[in-house]
Specification:
Shape: globular
CATH architecture of the largest domain: 3-Layer(aba) Sandwich
Number of helices: 16
CATH class of the largest domain: Alpha Beta
Number of domains: 2
Number of strands: 17
Structural class: alpha/beta
Radius of gyration: 20 Å
CATH superfamily of the largest domain: Periplasmic binding protein-like II
Oligomer: single chain
Helix content: 25-40%
CATH topology of the largest domain: D-Maltodextrin-Binding Protein, domain 2
């Protein structure tokens, strides 16, 4: 088998693990790939590296290919999300000053109740300045969805600004932010180095949020189908490898290396185990499935999830919702997923769309081959989302 060279970009986050593991555990090599990984300092830099051909693939925020498909990113060509590389893995935290005010309110910091957390935030000085890694991100959409659903108004009660993940702690230290939503390990780094407290994991807002995707330039992917197939197989195998709890320690050690996340493996292990230190006093909370890389229904790119993101963006920007949802679903390439991974004997869902927020417990569903388990999938407000009928 002749080798194909591919450069892939990532941001130093725990959910870059599938690309790192694909390289470090030899899955890319076994698929006939010479995989070069390149770190980027920010999501805008990584997006541009992919868009302008400096790399061929990237760990990417799930809304970015959708926004490109919607024509919202001037000069950025169409991007395709061919796999969901991670589900959840984010935290919402507050600055030391806001943490102190919440303590004075008697807030319990139980890390489980999104509505109680929003009610407590509503009592803080406003507008609450919240940092997220990028304007087009699940972080933004989840925070805006959560707080607006609880009666807070963006622009009046809270504002959201973009801060690269590795710089989040410094922004809190400088007093530029009152709160933040970021992927690990940077929430834990902020708590350990600056103080404050973590209030909520992103999974308590939506338990099945598609956080990062494997993104490709659409034209490059169409011109290089064999390279795409090999890369998808390698990354899928890495996601499967990461699904084994017994490999957490090894994964933490691999990701902690200087060329990757360059932080202590103990910080990374918090994400893999879901045992997070929520304040500088060392109090911990256990979150099951805090970040998930593999399950029967992932890394499948569900068009219903793309539609939810597209609808959220369209409502926020005042765009036509139906047009936005259609474009969003085109960006999530479930057809390529089926085409390139079917030979691996993976059970595929029979439909590329489903009712989101409808499975409070894992449930068996119809799939090709072996049984398919739909993992827990709920929104904090208990509502369901059907792209055909929208929120219900």
């Amino acid at each position: 088998m002749s080798h194909i060279s591919i450069s892939a970009g990532f941001i130093p986050l725990v959910d870059a693990a599938p690309l790192i593991i694909a390289k470090e555990m030899g899955f890319a090599e076994e698929e006939g790939l010479k995989l070069e990984l390149r770190s980027a300092p920010s999501w805008s830099t990584l997006r541009d590296m992919l868009a302008f051909g400096q790399i061929q693939a990237a760990q990417m925020l799930s809304p970015v290919p959708i926004a490109a498909s919607m024509g919202l990113m001037n000069g950025i060509p169409p991007l395709s999300a061919v796999m969901v590389m991670s589900v959840n893995g984010t935290v919402f935290g507050v600055s030391p000053k806001m943490s102190e005010l919440l303590h004075e309110q008697g807030f319990g910091f139980d890390f489980k109740d999104a509505q109680a957390a929003a009610a407590a935030l509503a009592q803080l000085p406003r507008p609450l300045r919240i940092g997220v890694p990028f304007a087009l991100s699940m972080h933004y959409e989840l925070i805006a969805f959560w707080l607006s659903s609880c009666g807070l108004v963006e622009g009046e009660d809270f504002t959201i600004s973009a801060v690269p993940p590795p710089l989040m702690a410094q922004a809190v230290r400088n007093g530029d932010l009152d709160a933040y939503c970021v992927g690990e390990p940077w929430g834990s780094v902020t708590v350990d180095t600056v103080g404050g407290a973590l209030l909520l994991p992103g999974s308590e807002i939506w338990s099945a949020a598609p956080e990062k995707v494997l993104a490709l330039r659409q034209d490059w992917a169409e011109e290089n189908p064999e390279a795409v197939a090999r890369l998808m197989r390698a990354v899928w195998r890495a996601c499967d490898w990461l699904g084994d709890e017994g490999r957490r320690m090894m994964a933490s050690e691999l990701l902690s290396a200087k060329g990757y996340l360059d932080v202590g493996p103990d910080l990374i292990d918090r994400s893999f185990t879901g045992r997070l230190t929520i304040n500088e006093s060392g109090d911990t909370r256990q979150i099951d499935n805090f970040v998930r890389f593999h399950g029967s229904d992932s890394p499948f790119p569900w068009k219903s999830q793309a539609a939810w993101i597209g609808e959220r963006i369209s409502q926020r920007l005042g765009l036509d919702t139906d047009t936005a949802m259609s474009a969003a679903q085109e960006a999530f390439r479930s057809d390529w997923y089926r085409e390139n991974l079917s030979e691996m004997g993976i059970s595929m869902p029979r439909s590329s769309s489903k009712l989101e927020g409808a499975t409070p417990e894992p449930v068996e569903a119809s799939g090709t081959g072996s049984s398919l388990i739909l993992e827990r999938n709920v929104f904090f407000d208990g509502k369901k989302y059907d792209p055909a009928g929208k929120s219900a």
